[in-house]
Amino acid sequence: MRQHEGGHATTVAPGRWSGKGACGVPRSWNLCRMGHNPDVPPEVYCSGTVRSLENAAIDYAMLINDVFSYQKEIQYEGEIHNTLLVVQNFFGCDHPTALRIVSDLMTRRMQQFQHVAARELPVVCDDFELSEQARATLEGYVVELQNCMSGILIWHRGCRRYGADDLARRVHCFVPDLASAVPWRAVPVTR
């Protein structure tokens, strides 16, 4: 995604969503690897196949966040780096249409993840002549990534950040050209 021009996100770029690194997804993947058997050479993790697997999972997880956080980010925080808003601006469509497009993108990324895990990862194992133990470690990594994606979805469904009642209790709300519901006053700084 390119930076905004005049307050609007301008283009959809391939790959992960650069503005979303703060949600911690890549760090979660690294935690999954920490306990792995050293039988898996680092070159395997650097292979295009494993990177494709991880990128599909990261994209899916970040898109989950964008779907759930849309109202909070747009209405309450003035954020413009939300995929749904980018899709709306890029395609000139309404929110429900953007949601369908993003849902389709999520489905495609999940299908990519499943394809790589089922078809391409076994080829990498053969190419690197990995032991049964190393193959089991990589199969376990796929399950760990699946668990991370599931956990992210479960967290978003159950957390108290995105519901209408939760958002209504927020102290401030970002809506351009609308005064804050809470009057602003200067607070003296004591030293």
Automatic annotation (TrEMBL):
First-level EC class: lyase
Pfam families: Terpene_syn_C_2
InterPro entries per UniProt: Isoprenoid_synthase_dom_sf, Terpene_cyclase-like_2
Cofactor needs: Mg(2+)
SUPFAM superfamilies: Terpenoid synthases
Keyword field: Lyase, Magnesium, Metal-binding
Listed EC numbers: 4.2.3.-
Family to which the UniProt record says this protein belongs: Belongs to the terpene synthase family.
Protein name, UniProt field: Terpene synthase
Species annotation: Streptomyces chiangmaiensis
